[in-house]
Amino acid sequence: MGEGYRAGQVGYIASRELVARAKAREDLFDKLRKYDGPFIGTPAHPKDWGPEKQVDDIVQSAFKYVDGDPLGRRFKIRPVKYPDAPTFVLQRAYDIDGDGVINAGLSQLGVRYVFADIDPRGPQGGPGSGFDCSGLVVWCYQQVGYDVPHSSEAIRLDPRLTRFGDQGRCQPGDPVIMWFPNSRGIPPGHASHVGMWVRPGMMLDTRNPYNEPVAIRPIEMGSVLTFGRYRAVNGPVAG
Questions:
Q1: CA dihedral 209, 171, 7, 41 (to 10 degrees)
Q2: Measured between alpha carbons, how far is residue 224 from residues 155, 171, 217 in Å?
Q3: What DSSP designation does 135 have?
Q4: Backbone torsion region of residue 110, taken as left when φ is above 0, otherwise alpha when ψ lies between -120 and 50, otherwise beta
Q5: Please, which residues bridge with residue 131 across strands?
Q6: What is the DSSP secondary structure assignment for residue 87, as one 8-state letter?
């Protein structure tokens, strides 16, 4: 479980910066001290947040709530006496279910390469099943409730992706972003291929130009641009 917190007001919370718990607590205190209570906090019913519920109490409750669930819940807070004040939000990051991502991919072993396609085998697919490399990644992540772009380069540039070069940091399901010589004019340094890390030295992917089906293959380290990890920070809204 990756830890990281964000504390901000609605409209600002879209920032992807994740900070340590102590820093998030300080940020939230600083924002709320501008207002005198009471506050409305979710998920508690407003009647539970009377005038005695001041900043210390509401911040403590917020952290207790977001830390008490593995799915990255977020806690909303609004100053009652200031109808024009923003709603403040505390969020905690959580890692994507990488094992679920890989298990989804393993269910598609042997499915052929088809450029620009996302067509799984099974109840959702049919005789024409096929994926391109990023299409396989898109579909596998969709199975754990997460949307990623349908393009190797778009995945590389996705601001939600934390990129790193050390394979030792990889966990199952992490994108492995690569460049291979290609006929599409994609220059070195830009992604022409993407797969998913399975275990040290091995990845799950499907490849062009040889129409290689979905399989577990060795990672060609000389072609790796970066490894990466998606972290979800927009859990279900509290209350």
A1: 110
A2: 14, 16, 14
A3: H
A4: left
A5: 113, 118
A6: P
Q: Reduced to 3 DSSP states, what percent helix, strand and coil does the chain have, rounded to the nearest 5?
A: 25, 25, 50
Measure CA 31 to chain center. 26
The 10s digit of each residue's pLDDT in 43-96 is 544 444 444 557 888 888 888 888 876 556 678 888 888 888 888 888 877 667
CA-CA distance, 35 to 141, in Å (whole number)? 41
- Global pTM reads 0.69
Q: d(Cα 81, Cα 4) in Å, to the nearest integer?
A: 31
Mean residue pLDDT across the chain:
83
Q: Which amino acid, one-letter code, is at 15?
A: S
Q: What is the 3-state secondary structure (H, E, C) of 2-17?
A: CCCEEEEECCCCCCCC
Confidence of residue 231 (pLDDT cuts 50, 70, 90): confident
Tokens 């910066």, residue? 17
- Beta-carbon contacts of 49 under 8 Å, excluding residues fewer than 6 positions away, are 38, 39, 40, 41, 58, 80
Residues in the chain: 239
Which tens digit of pLDDT belongs to each residue from 14-30? 555 677 888 888 988 88
